[in-house]
Each structure stands twice: as structure tokens, then as C-alpha cells.
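ZP: hey, is the pyridoxine-5'-phosphate complex queued? I don't see it on the tracker
AM: it wasn't, my bad. submitting now with these inputs:
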Amino acid sequence: MSDKPVLHVNVDHIATIRQARGTNEPDPVYAALQAEQAGAEGITVHLREDRRHIQDRDLRLMREMILTRLNLEMASTGEMLEIAKKVKPDMVTLVPEKRREITTEGGLDLSANFEDLKKTIGPLKERGIRVSLFIDPDQKQIEQALKLEADDIELHTGEYANQKDPKLVKAQLKRLKIAAKFGHELKLKINAGHGLTYVNIGPVLGLPHLRELNIGHSIIARSVYTGIYQAVREMRALIREGV
Ligand code: PXP
């Protein structure tokens, strides 16, 4: 088995283009199948409360059609829990969600939402669905993730991705490394994502114990020029071979 992390491609923004016109193209289900053919080990979608991109129908069809793994990102709400129980994705990643945000703006605050998250995590795990928690790379959050009996944590790489000053980039990487090591010691599986691109992915691949990467916008942006098959192959080559 390769020691490199696997690539989960987030196809939300194919749906963003479709929703811009309210038609039926481009179809994120077709994109997910092409991403798989190009070597993606999993497909990630975020079903938002406001349905701004992925629709319930996309999720249902992907569950039927994709051959790898389906990772459903969702907020911890009663409505989403019912959908997840019905659709049974391979994995649920719980994320914070604000209506007015352009994209997910930070990790979950596990302490502040502890009881609420417990009510969502329990029923998912009872149904054999793996649960990952999207968190900032902080020790306190990781300890809470263990208490919540999460299987995985997804470390938020957005702050790393946003830095321009090399010193600050280095500091964020260090923070991610410490968090990955600490999470692994607590026997949590370590994933990462948000804001990762063809340009900034390199140093992230040096994080210890990294199992899965969730990458969306950068791949979909490149796919506008190259097609999604080629865009996924190029990201995968970067992850696997560093080229
Ligand atoms: N991981 C999580 C938890 C996310 O919410 C998102 C965005 O939907 C991603 C990864 C992918 O981020 P990006 O589109 O910036 O690659």
C-alpha cells in the first residue's frame, strides 16, 4: 500500500455552474464518474442547507453510481441526519455552516457544539457510517474529537492556504504537523483539506500520518481548461509522485 494520502475530489462547483442557470448541465454526477476514472479514490459533496450547489438528486445518484467512496459533508442538523441515514454515504464529514459564507470559513467548535454533535454522530456510527470532524489544527479540538468518538479528523488547511508571508506559511505548517501527530497518537485518522491547490499542496504532503485529502475548487477550476479527467490526473500525479 502506498504511504501517500488518497485523493477525494469535491465536485460541488460543477453543480455551482449548473445552478447559475438552473438547467441540467454540467452534471456533477458525470463529473464524479470522470474523476473516478482519472484515479480519484473518493468523491466528496457538501449538501448545504440552502442547496446552493449540490442537490438531493445529485447525492442519491452518486450513491447509486460511484464505485469508490462517497464522503458527504454536512452540517449537524436534524434534516441532514435524516438524509444521511437514508442515503448511507461511506463517510460523513461534519462541518460548520453559515448561510452567508462563500465557503466553509473554519473548523467546528467541538466544545461549544458538543451535545448537538453527539446526537448526530451516534446514529451515523450505529449505521456503520464513518464520521469525520472538520476542525482547526488545535489540540483542544482534537481532544474533543476523541471524546465525541469520531473516527477521523479533517484538519482545516484554509489558514495555511491563505498565508502569503513565508514565515506565516511555515508557522501554519508547523501547527498542522503538530496537530496531525497529536491526532494520530490519539488513534484518530488524519485527513486534510480546504484551499489546497496545485501550487500549495507540496508541503502539505509532508504532514505525518495523512490519509485523505479533500480537494475541490482548484481541481474544478483547472478542469474548465483541461477537462476534469486531466485535472484529476495532474493532482493525483502531484500527490503520488510530486510532479
Ligand atoms: N474540506 C471541507 C470540509 C470543505 O468544506 C471543503 C469545501 O467544500 C473542502 C475540503 C474543499 O475545499 P476546496 O474547494 O477549497 O478545495
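AM: back. DSSP finds eleven helices and eight strands in the chain.
ZP: great, adding it to the tracker
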